[in-house]
Write a structure and sequence with these properties.
The chain has 177 residues and is mainly alpha-helical. The longest helix has 30 residues. The chain is globular, with a radius of gyration of 20 Å. The model has no long low-confidence stretch (mean pLDDT 85).
Length: 177
Amino acid sequence: MPPKKKYYYTPETKAYYVRLKELANSCGRLASKKSLLFNLDEAVVNPECIRTLKNYYDGDKGRLEDSIKKKEKELRDTDWRRFLRASDNAGIKRDAGDRRYEWFFGRMVLSEEDCDLRARVHDWCNAELEKIERGVPTVLPPLEVEGRELIQPQSVPDLMARYNELLANRTKRQRKQ
């Protein structure tokens, strides 16, 4: 019987997934503000939306729009850059002109009704963090230890491929019904 493989994570891997979850949370807050603005522009406005506008933005739609612009800038300047730094620290190679990162960011700030990528990213990050927390060693063993395998975190293109596969499976299931 071959020896059981042991998987090792570097400390940067955990930091990467934590930053990715923080990015998803920030994108969710921006998505909720955009959703509120969209709902206020509907023909029939939900009373809850009016209450939220009144309580948080003094009933001023202009303040909500300013808040969205400010949050978008803040998100790109802080959380997105922190995520990219964590990605670099984890050893994920990325191409500076890769448009998939912009697509990923754009999908992350959509509402849950339009795209569930943010929820899937949370699920995937939680699963990886749980593996790490369950006692899987986070320090790389010496090279002479047999059966070692370093687990690389999932890059943005990997996450997108995984999400596209999920969408393709959903489409297949819907066609069968």
